[in-house]
Write a structure and sequence with these properties.
This protein is α+β, with helices and mostly antiparallel strands. The chain is built from 5 helices and 9 strands, in the order ββααβββαβαβββα. A hairpin with a 4-residue loop joins β1 and β2. The protein binds coenzyme A.
Length: 186
């Protein structure tokens, strides 16, 4: 469990499953994803996330904003080996809509990057989304990731027939070296 200025980044509880399913059923939250998610699929994803914590020691945190809400969404690290076929770790986020516009994703994202480099020992962290997902790209840029136009790719898990506009992804990267040289916190 990690505390940031305003947030608690923690393992998932059963009580998170209902609000997580609710945000996954919000079409605005899933605007740049492949549709809303059923309760069953949402729960299966939580199981996968928790298996990541047990098996690898890193995964997505359930994000709590004490005094605001016990669960506002997730932020954290996720395997993304499928991007190039080589080992790759992504920093990602998904928050309930009423908690957007407060800087929560950036606050937790910065901590996810610190955790990835300092505690997990990663050499690089990436992030990616469709070019039209300006909010997610905003988080990437605020927390110091850098666009690598040569790394843009067609997402192999996107249904190109149903969601042709969600196939092309822009790639952002941050190396441990750059993170160490630019971070201002001790
Ligand atoms: C992507 C997502 C997490 C971004 O959330 P967000 O709240 O816009 O991002 P941040 O936490 O960085 O907050 C930045 C906003 O908070 C504002 N803000 C308010 N108080 C702030 C504070 N104390 N510190 C920083 N920013 C603050 C900023 O001005 C900015 O506002 P703006 O949107 O008007 O420019 C959210 O839109 C989301 O969950 N989307 C759906 C899921 C998704 O697409 N995930 C990515 C898939 S690849």
């Amino acid at each position: 469990m990690i505390r940031t200025e305003r947030l608690l980044l923690r393992r998932w509880r059963d009580g998170d499953r209902e609000p997580f399913a609710a945000l996954n059923a919000d079409p605005m939250v899933t605007e740049h994803l492949q549709g809303t998610t059923s309760r069953e699929a949402s729960d299966a994803f939580v199981d996968l996330v928790e298996a990541g914590w047990r098996e690898r020691g890193w995964s997505l945190w359930a994000v709590e904003a004490p005094d605001v809400a016990p669960f506002i969404g997730y932020v954290g690290l996720w395997p993304a080996d499928f991007v190039t076929g080589a080992p790759m770790v992504e920093v990602g986020w998904r928050l309930a809509r009423r908690h957007w516009g407060k800087g929560y994703a950036s606050e937790a994202g910065l901590e996810a990057i610190r955790f990835g480099f300092a505690d997990v020992g990663l050499d690089e962290i990436v992030s990616f989304t469709v070019a039209q997902n300006r909010r997610s790209i905003g988080v990437m840029e605020r927390i110091g990731l850098i666009r690598d136009p040569a790394g843009d790719f067609d997402h192999p898990r996107v249904d190109a027939v149903a969601y042709p506009h969600l196939v092309r992804h822009v790639l952002y990267r941050l190396t441990r070296e750059r993170w160490e040289s630019t971070r201002t916190l001790p």
